Amino acid sequence: HVQLVESGGGSVQTGGSLRLSCTASGFTFDHSHMEWYRQAPGADCERVAFLTSDGHMDYANSVKGRFTMSRDNAKNTVYLQMNSLKSEDTALYYCAAGGSTYWGQGTQVTVS
Asked: CB neighbours (10 Å) of residue 88?
């Protein structure tokens, strides 16, 4: 079965950095588009970043220039490098696959 496991969240000061990881199993990872979403308390779920199987990527305006998504097909893993973090980046971050059909359990990022 499909499984997505995020890690790398934590608490960081404003201006700091974190790198999230999402390791996938149960599907053909290198053919799959992957996404990162986040949901802050009381807010709608927001797509943060998108990376296709052939390397096309897109970012939410709120994170452009600060966040970078990448993938390592040999490890079935996608990453989200987050720099210059702001308090408004505080949220539960999820990775998703299969056109947002499959979701991980999320990893908490807190910036203060």
From this structure: 10
DSSP string, 80-107: EEE-S--GGG-EEEEEEETTTTEE---E
Least Cα distance to 57 among 69, 48, 74, 66 occurs for: 69
b/e burial code for range 13-38 (CB count within 10 A of at least 16 → b): eeeeebebbbbbeebebeebebbbbb
List per-residue pLDDT tens for the chain, 112 residues long: 999 999 999 999 999 999 999 999 999 999 999 999 999 999 999 999 999 999 999 999 999 999 999 999 999 999 999 999 999 999 999 999 988 899 999 999 999 9
Token pair belonging to 53: 């199987």
| Amino acid identity for residue 62 in this structure | S
Contact 48, 93 (CB under 8 A): yes
